[in-house]
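W.,

You were right to be curious about this one. When I first looked at the sequence I had no strong expectations either way, so I just let the prediction run and decided to look at it fresh. Below is the sequence, 220 residues in total, followed by the output.
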Amino acid sequence: MTTQTAPNPAVRAWRDLDAEARLLPGMSLGRIPVPAGAAVADRLWEMGVRLVELEEPVDLAAEGAAEHRRAVDLLCLIRDLTARAVQVDWDLRLPAEGSAEQWKLLSHLHPPRGITGLTDGDEALHAWRTRHYLCKLVWRQGPGFVQIRDRRWGDLRRFTADEPHYMEAIALLDRGTSRTAVPAEVLDDFTAEHLVLHVGELAWWLPYRVSRWLQEAMAV
């Protein structure tokens, strides 16, 4: 029996956001396969990419370990590109049995083109688009501590962790890992503060490390 592995996801990429500018020679970078990895967004940025379009939706309603891994890999790409202030055109499918406000967990990411799976998907999409800005959920590494700043809920919430096992857990969660790979008390704390997304047996770190400040860092 032969097991088939899904090909790496791919994006279409351009050097400019403006629709007319993208028609000029040299603005389109064509179709680019994007293997999973922390350096993918950096590589796209260095190529001059300022707009990407995902070829497939992020499907959080799909069943199966491979599908869960695929969704998390795509979310990693969107998160890391958002941190670079790169526009991402993507589509999101949410589980119909989930909370009507489950989209808010992801509302720090660049807004998708469409949301399916919610009865009020259009309303959620409008709220996401009109309330989105960079640095809505970020984290930074200080000397011996990690600080997270969260504005997804309308106010500023700050969390600081200086225990080494919390920082080790963030490193594991960053690309998505099995929930059993993270100490239960740490995962419970992060989950209670809405800092991780659970996708099947995977847990994924939601905040991004900001790469481009829109204003002075102290004001964010």
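Here's what jumped out at me. The two ends are 54 Å apart (CA to CA). And, maybe more interesting for your project: Residues 137-219 form one domain.

Coffee later to discuss?

I.
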